[in-house]
UniProtKB/TrEMBL annotation:
The chain crosses the membrane at residues 26-47, 59-78, 108-127, 134-153, 159-177. SMART domains: acidPPc. It comes from Polaribacter ponticola. Residues 60-174 form the Phosphatidic acid phosphatase type 2/haloperoxidase domain. This is Phosphatase PAP2 family protein.
Amino acid sequence: MFDSIIQKDKELLVFLNNLGNEQWDSFWLVITNQFYWSPLFLFVFYLVIKSFGWKRGGFVIFALILLVAFSDQFTNLIKDTVGRLRPNNDLEIKHLLRTLINPQSHSFISGHATTSTFFSVFVILLLREKYKYTYFILLFPLIFAYSRLYLGVHFPLDISVGILTGVVLAKIYYYLFKKLDNKLFS
């Protein structure tokens, strides 16, 4: 049964990846690069400082930086433990894919999907009572994660499990953050 799931995962990736065309390639190469999302991160930092003030806001920003560092290391640990080849390195399907980049690290789980979802859900939990449109930040991980399928460097399961992991980690992290925040700022 597991082999069947893996095979369907590969077939779905080939289908989704081949929906792309050269006209959109440069767009998705920009989307997949974290640097180009900097205005979003700066906007979130602005909202945090505006909502919580400098002292408490600085603590929240520090928590966000720790979140990203933890998430990155956590996904690398899983990738190295599982050792699943990236699609662009999988001899069975790589010739069927449109690949624009060729990372050599492992595939499962997607660090892009996990970290962007972790970040976004945590920000929503922090700011949802202050800003009703905070939920729009969920577009970030969805678009960011899809870029990895478009580029042929992650399987749909890598993305799906990464998103799920990001949601779970964000809820746990938020719970722990609130406990510490209450001790420090109450």
